[in-house]
Amino acid sequence: MLHPLFRVFPTIAMGAMVTAVLGGCTSEQAYSGGQAWQRNECNRLPDSMERTRCLERANTSYDDYQKEVEAAKARK
Length: 76
What we know:
By secondary structure, the chain is an all-alpha fold. About 80% of the residues lie in helices and about 0% in strands.
């Protein structure tokens, strides 16, 4: 079962992206800010295995993220 954090992360991430675009940040800068937030949330998890999995997801590079987005778009 996913931690509740991961159920709300897409909503928060979208809000951060909109704010970044309106504020003049690049999408890479916004992604980096979202990663930092997610890492902070991961570090709050008491279970070390869950925290490790969370940090692995939070450390996805921007390039890998972009590839995942493009692959998801292609599947639609």
